[in-house]
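Support reply, case 0932

Customer input (verbatim):
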Amino acid sequence: MQFLLAFVIVTSTILKGILCLPVKIDSETKFLVLENDDMEPTILECDYNVNDTASFLTVKWFRNDKTIYQWIRGSHPAPIPEFKNDVDSSYESSTDPNKQYSALALINPSISSTGDYKCVVQTRSETITNHKSVQVIDVRNYTLNMYRYKIQNETQLECTVTNVFPRPTITITSEDDDIVKVVANDPQQNEDGYYNATTFAAIYDDDDDLDSHKCVVTFEGYSQNLTTIITSGSCIAGTDFRILTLSFLVYFLIDYLKILV
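Our regenerated output:
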């Protein structure tokens, strides 16, 4: 019985030590909106306090578990060759010798800068880990078009967005709440990593009043969006009516067959 009690106490102590390893998770995602080639560096701070100031201290940054930056106290940072164009290793985040080069300064951002970032601080007596998340938004070269065409008493809409990142969601809305069916295709990612997406909507229109419909493109967790509006007097700019009609009917037929299966 005494042996069992001792085993439980020792096991509990070990587990407590493991579970209490200092780990800080930043629950907020940092959104990085790409604008031009002269953007200021994006700074990710590594939050920590160390008691062991006299011994070895190193800070490592990881992106998706791959090392991209390393600093050992008392020396200049050692840039990882593969990421030397992604990080400004000369950036000093503090006058505190324990934190002088601890922050990660991201430069030349692209959609590949999106990811889960982690900084690991190590001394001879402790290890501290911070997690942060970065989501890049790139809509610098997007196109957003909305087309409207009518078949008898039904109005059909098509909204298409191209060349955006990350994965978009398209919503078509109406002031008159006359939308009777919506078919949204899964966004497709091209070879460069950008997304194209299309959503269709069917609207029951039994009057000659001027109607207005809106297409909104959103990105998860991000407050800004892309919007375009079309009215019942708008034309189908640069698009053949028969092709649009046939495309729309095909998607609705596919959706109907899925329900039957």
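We compared this against your earlier run and they match. Two observations from our side: The helical segments are 2-19, 241-260. Confidence is low (pLDDT under 50) at residues 1-21, 235-254. Please reopen the case if you see a mismatch on your end.
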